[in-house]
Design goal:
With 342 residues, the protein is an alpha/beta fold. The chain has 2 domains: 124 residues, Rossmann fold (3-Layer(aba) Sandwich); 162 residues, Dihydrodipicolinate Reductase, domain 2 (2-Layer Sandwich). Helices cover 30% and strands 20% of the residues. It contains 11 helices and 13 strands. Helix 1 crosses helix 11, helix 6 runs parallel beside helix 11 and helix 7 packs parallel to helix 9. The radius of gyration is 19 Å and the shape is globular. It catalyses: N-acetyl-L-glutamate 5-semialdehyde + phosphate + NADP(+) = N-acetyl-L-glutamyl 5-phosphate + NADPH + H(+). This is N-acetyl-gamma-glutamyl-phosphate reductase. Keywords: Amino-acid biosynthesis, Arginine biosynthesis, Cytoplasm, NADP, Oxidoreductase. Its EC number is 1.2.1.38.
Length: 342
C-alpha cells in the first residue's frame, strides 16, 4: 500500500483527493492536514465522507508526513515551495496541485504570481505532470507539478494539431469557460451565488496566470514559441471547463483520424465521433477529457471542443493519475468512475 498524506485538505481539491483516494484500493491515507481545523474530524467538515474516513485534520507541524511515500499539496499557491524541500530530503515524493513548480522560468512565475519563489532550485527538478505528454518522466519523478485546469483542457485539445505540424502557430485562440469551483472554497464576492448565478462573464482578458503555463506547454511540444490568445469566462456552474479552441490549418488533413490515432492509447482522453459536441455534464466527477474536432464549412479553421471536470482531470484526478505512474500502477487505477448525470 502507498502511504499518502494530504497537506491542505479543507478545499475543494482536497476533499476531491480524499474521495478518489478512498476508492483507489492501493492507498493508505495516513494524514490530512489543516492548521485552522486541526482536531476536527474530516467527515464533520465534509458529511459526504461519513462512514468512509475516520481521520481528523492534523496540524502540519505535528503530522509525521516524513513517513509517507507520497504527499499531495492541495494548498494555495506559495505553500508547497516552502515545505517540499524537507519532504524530498526525507525521501518522500511530492505532487503539488498548486502552481509553485509549473513554470520553469522563475522570474516569469514571480511576475504572474506576485511573490518571490522560496525554492527556485526545485523548479528545475520538477516534472510537469501532464501524463499525455510526460508519462515517462513522471514515472521517475520525485516532484511533480500538477497542471492547472485551464491548461489541461487547452493543451490536450491543441496537442495533436501541434505535434502533426498542420496549424499556424502564431494565432491560436483558447476561448474557455469554467465553473465557480475553479476559484476555490474561499469566500469571495464574485463567487457568491447572487453574483455568479444567472450570470456569465469574461475575466482576465488582459492576462491570466494560466497563460504562461499554457504557452510553455504548447511551445515545448512545438519546439518553438507559439502565439496564443487566452480568454477565460466564469459560468454559473459548480464544476466543469469547456474550452473552444481555434487554429488556422496550413495543410489538408484527416482531423478525425489524427485525433483518434493520437489518443488511441490514452487512458483518460476520449475522442468523440465526428460531428459531436461534448458537454461538461458528460465528465462531471470523472477523470476524463472528452473532445471533438470540427472544420466548419470545410474551411481553413479548425475548432476543437475540449471538456473536463476542473476538480478531477483538472486537479485531484490528474494528481492521482500522476501518482499511479510514479508508483508503477495502471494509469487509471481508482479513476474509472462513471460521470454523474444529471
Amino acid at each position: 500500500m502507498i502511504k499518502v498524506g494530504i497537506v491542505g485538505g479543507t478545499g475543494y481539491t482536497g476533499v476531491e483527493l480524499i474521495r478518489l483516494l478512498l476508492g483507489h484500493g492501493g492507498v493508505e491515507l495516513t494524514a490530512v492536514t489543516s492548521r485552522k481545523e486541526a482536531g476536527m474530524p474530516v467527515a464533520e467538515m465534509f458529511p459526504s465522507l461519513r462512514g468512509f474516513v475516520d481521520l481528523a485534520f492534523s496540524d502540519p507541524e505535528s503530522s509525521d508526513l516524513n513517513r509517507c511515500d507520497l504527499v499531495f499539496f492541495a494548498t494555495p499557491n506559495g505553500i508547497a515551495m516552502q515545505q517540499a524541500r524537507s519532504l524530498l530530503d526525507a525521501g518522500v515524493r511530492v505532487i503539488d496541485l498548486a502552481a509553485d513548480f509549473r513554470i520553469s522560468d522563475v522570474q516569469e512565475w514571480e511576475k504572474w504570481y506576485g511573490m518571490s519563489h522560496a525554492s527556485p532550485e526545485l523548479v528545475a527538478q520538477a516534472v510537469y505532470g501532464l501524463p499525455e505528454v510526460n508519462a515517462e518522466a513522471i514515472r521517475s519523478a520525485r516532484l511533480v507539478a500538477n497542471p492547472g485546469c485551464y491548461p489541461t483542457a487547452v493543451q490536450l485539445g491543441f496537442l495533436p494539431l501541434i505535434k502533426a505540424g498542420v496549424i499556424e502557430l502564431d494565432s491560436l485562440i483558447a476561448d474557455c469557460k469554467s465553473g465557480v469551483s475553479g476559484a476555490g472554497r474561499k469566500a469571495e464576492v464574485h463567487t457568491l451565488f447572487p453574483e455568479a448565478g444567472d450570470n456569465f462573464k469574461a475575466y482576465g482578458v488582459s492576462g491570466h496566470r494560466h497563460l504562461p503555463e499554457i504557452r510553455q506547454g504548447l511551445s515545448r511540444v512545438a519546439g518553438q514559441s507559439v502565439g496564443l490568445t487566452f480568454v477565460p469566462h466564469l459560468t454559473p456552474l459548480i464544476r466543469g471547463i469547456h474550452a473552444t479552441l481555434y487554429a488556422r490549418l496550413k495543410s489538408d488533413v484527416d482531423l478525425q483520424g489524427l485525433y483518434e490515432q493520437h489518443y488511441k492509447e490514452a487512458a483518460c482522453v476520449d475522442v468523440l465521433p465526428k460531428g459531436s459536441h461534448p458537454e461538461t455534464r458528460s465528465v462531471r466527477g470523472a477523470n476524463v477529457c472528452r473532445m471533438a474536432v470540427h472544420r466548419p464549412q470545410a474551411g481553413d479553421t479548425v475548432v476543437v471542443l475540449s471538456v473536463i471536470d476542473n476538480l478531477v482531470k483538472g486537479a485531484a484526478g490528474q494528481a492521482i493519475q500522476n501518482m499511479n505512474l510514479m508508483f508503477g500502477l495502471p494509469e487509471s487505477q481508482g479513476l474509472r468512475q462513471v460521470p454523474l448525470l444529471p
